[in-house]
Amino acid sequence: MQKTSRSRLLVLGVCAVLPSFLKRPLFRLFFGYKIGKRVRIGLSIIDARECIIDDDVSIGHLNVITRVEKLNIKDHVRIGHLNVIRGGTEVSLGRYAEIIRMNEINSIPEPEVVNPIDPVFILGDGSIVTTGHKIDFTDRVEIGRRVILGGRNSSIWTHNRQRTMPITIGPLVYLGSEIRMAPGSAIPARSIVGIGSVITGALAEEGKLIAGVPAKTVKELSTEDQFLIERKTRPDLPDDV
Questions:
Q1: Which member of 34, 40, 71, 112 has the lowest number of beta carbons within 10 Å of its beta carbon?
Q2: What does the alpha-carbon distance between residue 229 and residue 171 come to, in Å, rounded to a whole number?
Q3: Is the Cα torsion angle 198, 202, 205, 206 positive or negative in sign?
Q4: Dihedral of alpha carbons 43, 238, 220, 217, sign
């Protein structure tokens, strides 16, 4: 997406300070956004070439979503406060997903790399990104259903100086604090990743505890571990998510 013009930024700024019942029709009128019922938007900037926000979405204060080509926010998504989502051809937040606060989800525009890029960020249904995490999606980052990126200060990055590689996290995964995921890494379904682990490649065995630097499978999940990944990520999460 091209750099936001001053006039567009001015209108977005004016819309940001208005109450939700005024924001919704103005977003539809001036920008062609498709916004559903009972959507609440706080003091936040939403700048996308194409934007679809489904019913019962809640977006808090001081969020900046900018220079996104296609923004697709499914029903009952919650975005807290002080989050930044910047760039990319597509950002898709699944049903009942949640981005809590102070997270940075960023795609570098026109990176100097030797391979084709696919700057897409997908957060699966019922998945949660908690606090202070940094996610680079200069290439594709796909996070599966009911994943918890827990704790604080994890980093996921898809590029280095010469090339990009996608990153995948399977469904029903719990990640502790300060996790590092390098370009091309992958975490299989139904896994728990221990605090401070560094994922440098594509791991294959499902249902394991993953830990270490570099990370590897450590042991089978215990009954308590199974409960952690299988319990609902939100009290209002439907059984079909």
A1: 112
A2: 9
A3: positive
A4: negative
Q: What is the pLDDT of residue 4?
A: 67
Q: What is the pTM assigned to this prediction? A: 0.95
Query: Which is more confident, 169 or 19?
Result: 169
H-state helical runs in the chain: 6-16, 20-31, 223-230
Phi-psi region of 15 (alpha: psi -120 to 50; beta: other; left: phi over 0): alpha
pLDDT tens for residues 18-57? 998 999 999 999 999 999 999 999 999 999 999 999 999 9
Residue (of 203, 169, 201, 206) closest to 184 by Cα position: 201
Q: What is the distance between the alpha carbons of residues 185 and 181, in angstroms, rounded to a whole number?
A: 6
CA atoms of 215 and 236, how far apart (whole Å): 33
Q: Which domains does the chain have, with CATH numbers?
A: 6-230 (2.160.10.10)
